[in-house]
């Protein structure tokens, strides 16, 4: 799963996109190049999640999360080299909450994919950001998107989730709630810390919080060289590489377009689950995922339209 979200991009990166529009938006890579970067990032995230599922029999879900967060924290610290001086107590409080939220989001999601198919888990998780978008907009049309999403969930659960592990469903929905919380604190962190410094520091907090849980579950298994290598691959595919690709893309791509592309993640996750984990979807499940994707895209378009209308009104 990808930590940076569509809503974060829309609220926190629009100025950066606008600043680059005049110099890079007119080139041939201004449309095709960035789109490819975003899609590559989404593919990397979801195939990283599929690889994580294959690693779970070795160290368990908590062990995989501990490895992912620890490696990602080390890489981000090395790349960003964030400052630790000059911040207020409120700044550090934001980082701590952001890191704990990140740890909870990852832990709950990996507990989910340990029990239910990857595509299903991502679809249920997306409901968190979708609900946040609908509530933030407060427009009647969002009732349509909410209805589509609920219809998709109903189909996905076969009318009662009898075919899915109830605990896996609960973990996925809880991860979605944490994702919505992540969006809020990611935006706050972006306002308080330059570039990706806040993310790097929060990742350290998340790793410190989760490492004891991974040690309790897996112990010395975490030190097996093959396991460390696979965990590092999960961290690179699920965190480091997507962050880099999305950062490059957002320099030349409108944040609204980025947000819509991020709505495709359930479909990418279902594809990764099929190719890597042999998790085939039924026609009903495919329709359910399509409904949730349509709801996510509709909610994003509504938010973007509302923002443009406000801008015209201000002029």
Describe this structure in words.
This protein is mostly helical. The chain has twelve helices and no strands. The chain has helices at 6-12, 14-24, 32-80, 89-113, 118-137, 142-156, 166-192, 197-218, 225-250, 255-262, 265-277, 283-314. Helix 1 runs antiparallel to helix 10, helix 3 (32-80) packs across helix 8 (197-218) and helix 3 (32-80) packs across helix 11 (265-277). The protein is globular, with a radius of gyration of 19 Å. The termini are far apart.
Summarize the SSE layout with pairings.
Layout: H1 6-12, H2 14-24, H3 32-80, H4 89-113, H5 118-137, H6 142-156, H7 166-192, H8 197-218, H9 225-250, H10 255-262, H11 265-277, H12 283-314
Helix pairs in contact: 1-7, 1-10, 3-4, 3-8, 3-9, 3-11, 4-7, 4-8, 5-6, 5-7, 5-11, 5-12, 6-12, 10-12
Proportion of helical residues: over 70%
Unreliable runs, pLDDT <50, ≥5 residues?
3-32
Main beta-sheet annotation: none
What proportion of the residues form beta strands (DSSP E)? under 5%
In a few lines, what is going on in this structure?
This protein is an all-alpha fold and 315 residues long. It has helices spanning 6-12, 14-24, 32-80, 89-113, 118-137, 142-156, 166-192, 197-218, 225-250, 255-262, 265-277, 283-314.
Give descriptors for this structure.
single chain; mainly alpha; 12 helices; globular; disordered N terminus
């Amino acid at each position: 799963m990808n930590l940076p979200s569509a809503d974060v991009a829309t609220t926190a990166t629009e100025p950066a996109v606008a600043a680059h529009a005049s110099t890079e938006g007119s080139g041939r890579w201004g449309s095709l190049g960035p789109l490819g970067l975003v899609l590559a990032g989404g593919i990397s995230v979801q195939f990283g999640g599929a690889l994580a599922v294959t690693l779970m029999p070795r160290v368990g879900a908590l062990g995989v999360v501990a490895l992912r967060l620890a490696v990602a924290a080390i890489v981000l610290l090395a790349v960003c080299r964030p400052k630790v001086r000059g911040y207020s107590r409120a700044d550090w409080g934001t980082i701590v909450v952001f890191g704990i939220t990140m740890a909870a989001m990852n832990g709950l999601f990996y507990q989910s994919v340990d029990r239910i198919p990857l595509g299903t888990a991502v679809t249920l998780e997306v409901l968190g950001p979708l609900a946040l978008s609908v509530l933030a907009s407060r427009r009647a049309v969002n009732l349509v998107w909410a209805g589509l999403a609920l219809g998709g969930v109903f189909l996905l659960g076969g009318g009662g989730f009898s075919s899915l592990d109830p605990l896996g469903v609960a973990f996925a929905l809880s991860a979605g709630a944490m994702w919505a919380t992540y969006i809020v604190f990611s935006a706050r962190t972006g306002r308080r810390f330059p570039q990706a410094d806040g993310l790097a520091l929060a990742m350290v907090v998340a790793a410190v919080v989760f490492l004891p849980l991974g040690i309790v579950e897996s112990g010395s298994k975490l030190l097996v060289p093959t396991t460390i290598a696979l965990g590092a691959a999960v961290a690179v595919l699920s965190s480091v590489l997507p962050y880099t690709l999305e950062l490059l893309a957002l320099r030349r791509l409108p944040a609204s377009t980025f947000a819509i592309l991020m709505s495709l993640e359930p479909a990418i996750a279902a594809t990764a689950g099929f190719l890597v984990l042999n998790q085939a979807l039924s026609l009903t499940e495919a329709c359910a995922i399509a409904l949730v994707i349509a709801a996510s895209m509709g909610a994003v378009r509504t938010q973007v339209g509302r923002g443009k209308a406000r801008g015209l009104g201000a002029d």
